[in-house]
Amino acid sequence: MSKKKVCILSTVDFTRMTVVSVYTDYLKRCDIPFDIICVNKYGQEDPFGAENIYGFVPKTKSSWNKFRKLISFWKIRDFALDIFKNNHYDFIIVWNELTAFIFSDILASMFKDKYCINIRDYQYFNLFPVKMRLTSAIKSAFFTTVSSRAYLEYLPSDNCYMMYSFNKGILSKTNPHQALREVGKPIRILYIGQIAWLDNVYKLIDALKNDNRFEMIFAGSGSEQVEEYAKSNQVNNVTCYGRFHPGETAKYLAEADILYNLYGTDSRHLTTAVSIKFYYAVFLHIPILVYKKTEMEKMSQICGIGFAVENEEFINYGDKLYDWYFSLDQKEINKKCNLFLEEIEEGQKQIYRLMDRKVGT
Q: Are 155 and 186 contained in the same domain?
């Protein structure tokens, strides 16, 4: 009996699909070969161990609007179709909602009940064309996962499961904190990943500018603009690192006392998302900065690690954050985070049981 083969289909590059390791770990453990079709604009090396990588390079410019970029990304359909015709795939892992939107009709016709969809972010779910194509794709999928329960309000939820964005491979290289930062040493706030929504970044920098109780660290693409802002405003407690390989994530996380997750509240995309940073914080047993009236606030409060403020509420931010941080009980945080990690583990087992029914050997 020949082995089954899986394809991971994605419209983002490796740095933005690190949580796909939930699937790749399963596939490697079961000795199931898999290919990856994804955007690979920068020629990045495969961190997941695929048999074949098919990298699509969209011809886009940062100055283009979203519609023009979508037209360019649409060409990945023909790119992937050629690969589908030359390979027999028993199951497709569809990574993110844009991929599901672009490939909706192809998935429903060629792979009905032989693919899963992973909804990562809110992307105009209330717009009719988006809702129509996503609904079609979800109804023909074997199962769908969401990274935030808030998305279930906008999507068919009969066969949807929560997928916790927990990357064991990255986090196994670091250890949970056992104590708060020592009094007298600067509390290290880390923003890790693609640095965006800079207005919120600048609010934090302005609020903690040259406050020797805090050190702000920015690691990821986009940090160059932050570094320029810090220099032009004579801020001496900001450190910046540029784009890094996903394998280096643990190195930066090891330096964090608090994680940054201040992205704004002016769109459903921002208020409904649960970011990977939350799971980093849960595993590390450390606090995370969030805005009020967001799904991130709800989730982080479960573990007692969320420092939540209103979007405009940055008056005396340093004093409030410092006092709150040293009022925390590390043992209580450890207890709550460990309970939540057990829930994550059960959630991943549920996904693996679903995978067993289609590709398990």
A: no
One domain, residues 143 and 218: no
- Tell me: do 315 and 210 sit in the same domain: yes
Verdict on whether the full-model pTM lies above 0.85: no
In this structure, the strands spanning 160-162 and 115-119 are unpaired
For 51-95, the pLDDT digits (tens) are 999 999 988 777 777 778 888 889 999 999 999 999 999 999 999
Question: Does residue 321 form part of some domain?
Answer: yes
* Calpha distance 99→78 (Å, rounded): 13
CA 45 to each of CA 48, 49, 70, 116: distance values in angstroms, whole numbers, following the listed order: 9, 10, 25, 25
Looking at residue 23, its amino acid is Y
- Write a three-state SS string for 218-259: EECCCHHHHHHHHHHCCCCCEEEECCCCHHHHHHHHCCCCEE
Q: Of 143, 163, 183, which one is at a domain's C-terminal end?
A: 163
